[in-house]
C-alpha cells in the first residue's frame, strides 16, 4: 500500500512538471519559437532583396543591350541614307544635264561674279597642287611642307597674340627702345628709330620664354603626325623602318648602293673593319 502511494505521488510530480501550467517551460518554448520566427523573416527579407538586385541587374543589362543595338542601327541607317541621298543627287544632276544642254550655264546664274572668281581660283589651286604633288627636289618638298603647316595655323588665338604684342610694346617703350607718339586726334602708337609703327624692336633672346602647355602639345602632335606620315609612306613603298643599327646612308638610293657594296666586298674587308672598330688598325 505504501509502495502504491509512492508511485502515485511520483506520477503526479511528473505530470505537474510536464503540464503547460509550468511557467519556465512555457517561457522557453515561447522564446525558441520567437527566435525561429525572427530568423526566418530576416532570411526572407534578405532573399527578397537579393532577388530585387538580380532583377535590377538583369533589367539594366537588357536596357544597355537595347541602347547599343539602337545606336548601331541608327548609325547604319544614317550611313545608308547619306549614301542614298548622294546617289539621288548625282542621278538628278545627270538627268538635268542630259535634258538641258545649257544646264551648267543656267546653274551659274545663281552665283555672283566674286563667288565664281573665288571658285575658279580654288579649282586652279587644287589643280596646281595635284600636278605638283610629285617629288621634284628637297627644296620644293620643304616648301610644300611649310605651306601645309602654315595652312594649319587657322586656329591661332589672335587675341592672345595681340595681348602679348601689346605687353612687349609697353615694355620696350618703358625701356626706351620705342617712342610713344600721340596724334592730334588722340591716336597713340609707337615708333622705332627706323620709323616703323607699332612694330616691336628685335631683341636678344633672354632664354626666359616659357611656352604654354597648349603650344607644346600642338608641336608634339604635329611631330607625331609627320612621323606617322613618314612611316605610312615607307610602308607604301614596301620599305621596312630600320631604326636599329648605324645609319650609313643619306637616302634610299645611297642605302641600296651601300648594300650592294656590302654584298660583294664584306668578305674581303671584314678584318679591316673589325680592326677599325677595335682601334688596332695601322
TrEMBL record:
Subcellular location as annotated: Nucleus
Major localization class: nucleus
Organism: Periconia digitata
Entry's Gene Ontology BP terms: mRNA splicing, via spliceosome
Region (Disordered): 1-83
Protein name: Pre-mRNA-splicing factor SYF2
One cellular-component annotation, GO: catalytic step 2 spliceosome
Function statement: Involved in pre-mRNA splicing.
UniProt record similarity statement: Belongs to the SYF2 family.
Basic and acidic residues: bias regions: 10-19, 58-75
Biased composition (Low complexity): 24-45
Superkingdom to which the source organism belongs: Eukaryota
Keywords assigned by UniProt, alphabetized: mRNA processing, mRNA splicing, Nucleus, Spliceosome
PANTHER family: GCIP-INTERACTING PROTEIN P29 (PTHR13264), PRE-MRNA-SPLICING FACTOR SYF2 (PTHR13264:SF5)
Subunit and partners: May be part of a spliceosome complex.
Amino acid at each position: 500500500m505504501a509502495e502504491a502511494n509512492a508511485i502515485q505521488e511520483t506520477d503526479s510530480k511528473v505530470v505537474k512538471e510536464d503540464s503547460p501550467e509550468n511557467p519556465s517551460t512555457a517561457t522557453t518554448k515561447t522564446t525558441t519559437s520567437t527566435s525561429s520566427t525572427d530568423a526566418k523573416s530576416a532570411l526572407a527579407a534578405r532573399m527578397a532583396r537579393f532577388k530585387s538586385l538580380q532583377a535590377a541587374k538583369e533589367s539594366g543589362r537588357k536596357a544597355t543591350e537595347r541602347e547599343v543595338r539602337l545606336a548601331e542601327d541608327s548609325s547604319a541607317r544614317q550611313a545608308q541614307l547619306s549614301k542614298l541621298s548622294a546617289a539621288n543627287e548625282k542621278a538628278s544632276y545627270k538627268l538635268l544635264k542630259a535634258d538641258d544642254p545649257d544646264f551648267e550655264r543656267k546653274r551659274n546664274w545663281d552665283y555672283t561674279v566674286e563667288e565664281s572668281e573665288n571658285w575658279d581660283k580654288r579649282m586652279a589651286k587644287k589643280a596646281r597642287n595635284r600636278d605638283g604633288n610629285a617629288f621634284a627636289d628637297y627644296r620644293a618638298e620643304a616648301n610644300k611642307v611649310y605651306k601645309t603647316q602654315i595652312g594649319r595655323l587657322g586656329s591661332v588665338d589672335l587675341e592672345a597674340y595681340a595681348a602679348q604684342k601689346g605687353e612687349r610694346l609697353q615694355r620696350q617703350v618703358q625701356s626706351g627702345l620705342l617712342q610713344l607718339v600721340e596724334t592730334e586726334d588722340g591716336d597713340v602708337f609707337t615708333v622705332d628709330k627706323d620709323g616703323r609703327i607699332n612694330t616691336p624692336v628685335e631683341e636678344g633672346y633672354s632664354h626666359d620664354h616659357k611656352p604654354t602647355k597648349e603650344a607644346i602639345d600642338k608641336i608634339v602632335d604635329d611631330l607625331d603626325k609627320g612621323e606617322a606620315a613618314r612611316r605610312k609612306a615607307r610602308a607604301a613603298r614596301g620599305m621596312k623602318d630600320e631604326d636599329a643599327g648605324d645609319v650609313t646612308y643619306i637616302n634610299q638610293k645611297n642605302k641600296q648602293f651601300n648594300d650592294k657594296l656590302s654584298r660583294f666586298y664584306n668578305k674581303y674587308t671584314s678584318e679591316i673593319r673589325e680592326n677599325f672598330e677595335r682601334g688596332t688598325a695601322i
